[in-house]
Structure formats: C-alpha cells, structure tokens
Design brief:
single chain; alpha/beta; 13 helices; globular
Length: 324
Amino acid sequence: MRKRKKLIIFLAFILLWAVVAIFGYSKTQANQSSSSNLTTIRVGYQKGDIFDIARTQGDLAKDMKKKGYKIVWKQFQSGSALLQALSAGELDYGRTGDTPPVTAQASGTKLVYIGAAYSKAAGSGILVPKGSSITSLAQLKGKKVAYSKGSSSHYLLLKALKKAGLKASDIDWVDLDPAAANIAFSKGKVDAWAIWDPYTAAAQVQQNATLLTNAKGLTTDRDFILGTQAFATGHRNVSKLLLKEMQKSMKWANGHHTELINEMSKSLSLPKSAIKKMVERRNYGIQAINNQIIKEQQDIADLFYQDGLISKKVEVKKIVLSKK
C-alpha cells in the first residue's frame, strides 16, 4: 500500500508538471505568434526630444502594440544623422527641428511632414555672458556670435539681425556645434550665442548667462515629426495613429512636470534646475500640419534660398502628408 501510494503521488506530480509545461509552452508560442504578427515601426529620436519623452513614459509603445504595431527605437546624436537614416530608409519616422526638413527637401530627400509640435520659442534665443555690455540686438554689430549652420539657430539669428536693422555681414559668424559653442561661450571666445533649450537653460543656470532675446516674434522654432515618403504614404493609418498617440504623450508631459524633469535630468546629464527652467517655459503638444505651419516653414525655405544656404527653391506644401 505504501509503495502504491508513493507511485500515485509520483504519477500525479509528473502529470502536474506536464500540464504546467504544456501551458507555459502554449503561452510562449502565443506570445511569439502575437509578436510576430505585429508590424514593426522604426522611430528615430535624440535625447530629450519629444519622441524620447514618449519612449521613456512608455504608453506610446504599449498603445501602438494594442493596435498591432511594434515600435523599435533608434537613438541618434544629431538631427543630421537622423535625417541621413531617414533618407537611407533605415527609419520610418523621426523628429527634427524646423530647418532640417527644408534643407533635406532642397537636397531631394524623399520625406514628408507628419505633424508639428507646439512652439518652443521661449526656450530658444541669443545669449550673452554674465556682465556683458551687449544689451540690445543692434549692439551685436561687429561681434562674434556662435551658431550652428543650417540649424534653427541660424534662421533665428538671421531674423534677429533683420529686426535690429543689421545685415548678415555686420557680425562675425562662428559656426560651432552646441557642445563646442558652449565651451567657447563659457571661455569668452564668442560675444553671443544663438541656441535652443536645453543649452539655453543650462547656460542661464550654470553660467548666469543673460538671454538677450528669445525667439518669440522671430520664429516659432517647432519640432517636426517626419516620415519617409514611401512608408508614410503607404501606411497613412499608421501615420495618423502615431500622431494621435503622440498627442497623448505630450498631454502627459504637460501634466507631470516632476516626473518629466527627473527623467530628462538623468537622460541629458543636466541639473534639475536647468531642466525645470526648460520644461516650465514650454507647452508640450503635437498638431497636424496646417496652412500657418506651412507658411512658417516656407518662410525659412525662402530666406535660406535668398542667402544661398540651399541651392534651389522648394515648396513646403508638396511634402506634407495629405489627408487622403
């Protein structure tokens, strides 16, 4: 009887193990099958940008998965590298500032505008060092001003000079990437610096720099969601869905400043005080491309063409994803 009881217990254990194993295998296969049925969407981002916020927060990927899409995130160090990846077909979507789409269109890159972020003009502008004698835009005449060629800071500086009644030739243009410009600015090797957040906020907090002017009234300085022409036009439903889900992520950003500041401080390796300044002067949001936004981008294109920064005229409206 004792041996029979042990045998029954042993057989029951084996049966239980088999049931658990079969259940686990079935669940794994179901998950693999479910995963394999998802359409992969490749999205490029840079640290601290709107896609990075959505990636960190997490709901975008979860919500897209529920609709049948798997997001594969790819990080880039610069907007130019991201655009190259879009051009090469290595990405489906990406985020850049306002000037890269213009230069990309001029060079023949097959991309389309999917959506536009709200203006971040309050965090972009022209900085001067603490104690600088420069107190007006007109006083930039004859001064060394750092900027990044072909970037939003380039356009901003051109507009600021025009507002002050100065010509482009009235200043000494010093073309530097943001990291190099930050060093030059901190060491007094340039007299002013045209730049955007988070660099603006970091210089104000860490160097006590003065914001001579922000971009309000000069440029809206928007972020844009771009897609490759082939993918975005062939998957309009995905483009619309991505835009809708990004609107939710930006709504979260506006309502959760503390979490956003903590995460961005880690991501950008900047003090929370600088990130706080950046976040609190920006209204996060995404919208569809409208006629006003097309006009803003066309103004950039026209000015860049007039100044020889692009070699041919472009019509921005031709690469806006239609609503069909």
